[in-house]
Amino acid sequence: IGCKTSCTNEQFQCKNCRCISKSLTCDSKNDCGDNSDENQLELHCGCKFPCADEQFQCNNCRCIAKSWTCDHKNDCGDNSDEYAHCSYPVCSGNQFTCANKQCIPQKWVCDGNNDCNDNSDEAGCDNYECEPNEWSCPSTGKCISAQQVCDQVKDCRLGEDEEKTCSRTSCTTLNCEHDCYPTPFGGSCYCKPGYVINKKDNRTCIDFDECGGHKHKYCDHICSNFNGSYSCSCYPGYQQHDGIHCRSRAKD
């Protein structure tokens, strides 16, 4: 949308159509009110006051401590202290990589809390499928262990896992292949480790493919799936650590 009035030759026209003196541009002050007079990329502003040696100069000319860079926090206000010039470590197999490259424990994903500080650990959780022998909280989609359902401790945000209707009344009619645990809905079938309930009948058990691209990463590098099990291996130059993780041989 164009501005209805034009500024004079001695003035700068802000994005919000306000007119200010050209001398007020690139002075590290928001004179326009929309910060368009401080747009470093469009105006090619140079920072008038360089930062001290122990400080980092942001693209918007703000000075922050160098220790604040690459800490997954937008200390500059324009994110120039993050991402582009940062070399973040690769998250391990039991961690989740946030959009801001921060590593958090895998169990924090889809727990209803913004642990990444950019909410990427909660994105798409409405369609998130729980791992084998986990139960999905109806209100948030948070996955909890099947053993935590009806154990008299409220693990779901609204306490849906501990309703007064907790029972195993449906277990006799479900005819579970492996076993049945109590739920607020009368019971649910579950399988032994390495297997998952077949969604076609909700009672029989089929192999769970740990290598199938789940949010939980079972292996750091190479994953091989077997019936009821899986194994991990590492790329050349790395050695296996605790059966799941890989670390560089050069560090030894």
Structure description:
With 252 residues, the chain is mostly beta strands. Among the domains are: 88-125, Low-density Lipoprotein Receptor (Irregular), CATH 4.10.400; 134-207, Laminin (Ribbon); 215-248, Ribbon (Laminin). It is 3% helix and 21% strand. The chain has a two-stranded antiparallel ribbon with strand order 1-2.
Short characterization:
With 252 residues, the protein is mainly β. The protein contains 2 helices and 16 strands. The chain has helices at residues 40-43, 171-174, and strands at residues 11-13, 19-21, 55-57, 63-65, 95-97, 103-105, 134-136, 143-145, 179-181, 188-190, 195-197, 205-207, 222-226, 229-233, 238-241, 245-248.
Q: Rg from C-alpha positions? A: 27 Å
Counted beta strands: 16
Large-scale geometry? elongated
Number of helices: 2
- What is the level 1 CATH name of the domain at 134-207? Mainly Beta
The span between the termini is: 62 Å
CATH topology of the domain at 134-207: the name is Laminin
| Global mean pLDDT | 83
Protein name: EGF-like domain-containing protein
Domain EGF-like: 232-246
Disulfide bonds: 7-19, 14-32, 51-63, 58-76, 91-103, 98-116, 110-125
Keywords: Disulfide bond, EGF-like domain, Glycoprotein, Membrane, Receptor, Repeat, Transmembrane, Transmembrane helix
